[in-house]
Amino acid sequence: MTLMERLVPDDLWDIFQRIVPEKPVRSQGGGRQRYGDREMLAAIVFVATTGCPWRRLPPVFGASGATVHRRFTEWRRARVWNRMSDIVLYEADRLDDPQWSRTVAIAVSTRALAGAELD
């Protein structure tokens, strides 16, 4: 099993594909080919679960931390993380068997406050 498959299992990817927006069309055309959504999601999950700074993202993901962060921001503006957490919570409740690998979307969408007290 590859790192990407461990970070984004098929069941999580199936859910994500239902809510990820279509890639934007470049009015001027051309440009570099856009990195794949699954690879970007894996990199975002890696950052969210390890605490790795965007700028120190390992090269195994193929994109720079700045590129991954831009995609994260694009998806945040499209409310992907909100929809993802709604679906994950609904599915976990429906199955009455939450799988923690699916709850990464909630961690990604939760804002960390500087200087906040730890519980």
Structural overview:
This protein is mainly alpha-helical and 119 residues long. The protein has one domain. It is built from 6 helices and no strands. α3 (37-50) packs across α4. The mean pLDDT is 81.
How is this structure best summarized?
The protein has 119 residues and is an all-alpha fold. The chain has helices spanning 3-7, 10-19, 37-50, 65-77, 80-95, 104-109.
Q: Which residues form runs of ≥5 with pLDDT under 50?
A: none
User: Topology as H/E string?
Assistant: HHHHHH
Secondary structural class: mainly alpha
In total, the number of domains comes to: 1
Number of helices: 6
User: How much strand content do the residues show?
Assistant: under 5%
Span of the ends, CA to CA: 35 Å
Query: Biggest sheet: strands, sense, closure?
Result: none
The total strand number stands at 0
Proportion of helical residues: 40-55%
> What's the average pLDDT?
81
Shape: globular
Q: What is the rounded Rg? A: 15 Å
